[in-house]
Amino acid sequence: MSVSEILVINGPNLNLLGQRQPEIYGYDTLASIADKCASLAETLGVSVRFEQSNHEGSIVDFIHDARQKSAAIIINAGAYTHTSAAIHDALKTFDGYIIELHISNPHAREEFRHHSWISPVANAVMAGAGAYGYELATRLAAEKIAQTK
Description:
The chain is an alpha/beta fold. The protein is about 40% helix and about 20% strand. It contains five helices and five strands. Helix 2 runs parallel beside helix 5 (about 130-149).
């Protein structure tokens, strides 16, 4: 296991960041967010690997793969946050640190977004900080990884 890798998993529609509802999600693209996190991670002595899929099974596969390769997972599961017992169950198999991440604040939005299948298995939840939340989550994950060394 690479004890210094942070896997950042992005769910459905996050490939459209910067284009889709910028009034909610901002104008940063997923690629620009990944670049910022990679630069930050390097200064923190860790690495980040970004993955994105619109398919639930692929996200489960990313989590399974992380069991052997990653020390922490940051997951923005998009709408699957509110619907996926499969992602919940996969995260339960991961022994590292888990951060649930939301660009917007789901509790300030539609009621169906108030329930999370991920929160019960996450060590931390970050919401409402915009794209900057990815950098905050990267900092927290790096700190937790350093504490386990």
